[in-house]
Amino acid sequence: MTVDSQELRNRRAVVTGSSSGIGKSIALELARAGASVLIHACSNKAAAQDTAAACREEGVEAPVVLADLSTDSGRTEMMATSWKLFPQVDIWVNNAGADVLTGSAQDLPFQEKLDLLWRVDVLSTIFLSRACADRMKSNDGGVILNMGWDQAFTGMEGDSGEYFAATKGAIMSFTRSFARSVAPEVRVNCLAPGWIRTAWGETASEEWQSRVHREVPLNRWGSPEDVARVARFLASPAAEFVTGQIIPINGGAT
């Protein structure tokens, strides 16, 4: 059996938080599959435009939207602008997440990190999913993908383990219930990446590097592209009987 390399042609996708990291890789992978992709960033317009330019090289449309998803007004603006640029959205990926591990946010106290993660990761996922599904159901249906975390299943020690488990665990639980609410017109699934080498992984200490190799049976960090390929599958017709699932992408770590 051959695989259609343009299985998403004529589809339109929105990927939040797609100026870098996993979101950028997902946007590029959907573009390679033929989908036009709306690129979103909170404020880094230059990085978002770089992602958009790479997507356009695949022969698809790739508009850019800046919106602060930590606020009610930013979420409302994101939804309105996205559907104005793409009158019909077939694929919506809630990838945007607050970066509390690098940059200025890494020095915030625990409570402020938790609050930021709750607003950017959880509240925006719930708001955008519900608003998007309402529109998808009135059209020809669609696919929504959310972003969880594999260790929300098992737990991890420390501050980061606690606030990521609380927020990503909420997204994972929401996904299961929401998929039931919007079926059969809309499919909803959640990616649960494990040790993925993004900005934090690039500079992680030798202790963390050793831990990754110790915990992952495939004996390596995952890449953003590993996550993107799973997103492409879940967005495609090949996954038309898959909904309400949490998909670990973690090299077999338990």
Structure, described:
With 254 residues, this protein is α/β, with parallel strands linked by helices. It has a single domain, classed as NAD(P)-binding Rossmann-like Domain (Rossmann fold, 3-Layer(aba) Sandwich), CATH 3.40.50. The chain is 47% helix and 14% strand. Helix 1 (21-32) crosses helix 8 (224-235), helix 3 runs parallel beside helix 4 (110-138) and helix 4 runs parallel beside helix 5.
From the alpha carbons, calculate the radius of gyration and give it in angstroms: 17 Å
CATH topology: Rossmann fold
* Strand fraction: 5-15%
Distance linking N and C termini: 33 Å
- The strand count comes to 7
Number of helices: 8
Question: How would you sum up the global shape?
Answer: globular
Q: What's the architecture in CATH terms?
A: 3-Layer(aba) Sandwich
The chain-level mean pLDDT equals 94
Give the class-level CATH name. Answer: Alpha Beta
Question: Fraction of residues in helices?
Answer: 40-55%
Q: State the secondary-structure class.
A: alpha/beta
Helix-strand string: EHEHEHEHEHEHHHE
Features:
globular, Rossmann fold, 47% helix, alpha/beta, 254 residues, 7 strands, seven-stranded parallel beta sheet
Summed up, what is this model?
The protein has 8 helices and 7 strands.
